[in-house]
Design a protein that fits this description.
The protein has 88 residues and is an alpha+beta fold. The protein has one domain: Ubiquitin-like (UB roll) (Roll), CATH 3.10.20.90. The chain is built from 2 helices and 5 strands; from the N terminus they run ββαβαββ. A 5-stranded mixed beta sheet has the order 2-1-5-3-4. The radius of gyration is 12 Å and the shape is globular. This is Ubiquitin-like domain-containing protein. It comes from Echinostoma caproni.
Length: 88
């Protein structure tokens, strides 16, 4: 999976994001902590995670990852899918 800031996110537009393998048993809460560390976000910054799979790109559909206690595997993501970080 590729974790990257959205166009209105915290990073420069030319940033390509971070590619990481994420275990399907990882919770969304732990994924948010990982994203906070990788992008060096201060604790005050709040953000949402939104997944977009290759099969969803054709219809431009996004999957909000808003349930912090759910495991990433619940969202049925595959290799090559992208998780966007959106600032609130």
């Amino acid at each position: 999976m590729k974790l990257e800031p959205s166009s209105n996110g915290c990073a420069k537009p030319d940033d390509t994001g971070i590619v990481r393998r994420i275990h399907s048993r990882m919770t969304v809460s732990h994924l948010k902590m990982l994203a906070r560390r990788l992008f060096k976000l201060p604790p005050r910054v709040s953000f949402d995670l939104v997944a977009q799979g290759e099969r969803h790109q054709a219809i431009n559909a996004e999957l909000p990852m808003d349930a912090e206690t759910r495991e990433v595997g619940f969202y049925n993501l595959e290799d090559g899918d992208v998780i966007y970080l959106r600032l609130r």
